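The records we work with from here on pair a chain with its fold. Here is one such record, which you should read through line by line:
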Amino acid sequence: MLGDASILPGSEPTFEQRSIVHSCAGGVAPSTLVPVVSLDALNGMSLEPIRSRIAPEKVAEYVAATGDDADRWSRVAPPSYAGALLFMAAPLLLGREDVRTYTRVLVHVDQRFEWHRSLEIGTDVILNSRVTKVRSRGASTFVGFDVGVDSPAGRLLESSSTFLLGEEPASAPGADHGEPEAAHRGPNETPTKVQHAGANSPLPSLAKSASRVDLVRYAGASGDFNPIHYDHEAARNAGLDGIVVHGLLMGAWMSQLAAATTERLDPLAELRLRFRTALRPAVSTKVTGTIAGEPTGGIERVDLAVSAEAVDLVTGHATVRVE
């Protein structure tokens, strides 16, 4: 059933009022779909709430798949686990049979996360999601998708995504050079505590790369099973030269560098990402960051980028809670 079942219109739902339709051990429960004639009909639609838990085994799997620091994230999930929570809810929209027609091309354009509390392991959570905008441009449609993550103690996290959906790729793929060996990748550094000199200072860069095996592991850990990240033919049918790295995996690398500037368990207040250019597996990248100005109100801005061969693949910034 779509909508806020059992929630009175105009009232703020309590944690216990929200429906149970998901657990980390299983998939999304079948929905009664109201077919849409066009994507415009989705605008403003609220989807079924999902109940889940920040489970220790899922967090450990995610930390390993993103190359993060396992010792640091033993009590709480890393901030980038927000991506896994997002993709608990996203299939309720993107997996609808009446939406799949429009998702031969599916591109994550930009992303914003805002954290209100640390993501404590073992916490029960409710995810409420809503389509916030639908805007068509030619054969493509931009869809805004928001997710709020609540716990018994209150709001944990807010996520705002923009997806580009299309029935046909904008252009044909380039020459088919195949894929690298499944386990081949470049350097993949684990983040460590960063010492920086203050305002306008660059941070030490972080070397990152993902093999095709890494991408399968990340898909399993995050729930993002878009086949362009592991299926060569699916990627080329979507107009790409081959398999590409998940945008939110690169976003996780960026959040690792920002989080390394503090030892807090709730290091990030906000992260904004713009996905600009696709990254192929096994390509070496650098994650770079610069402290932007002096801290204000206990918050420090870090400008971030993932780049390869002098091309920025993802850009953005994080606001970091400083000691």
Residues 1-32 have pLDDT under 50 and may be disordered. The chain has seven helices and twelve strands. The first helix runs from residue 56 to 66.
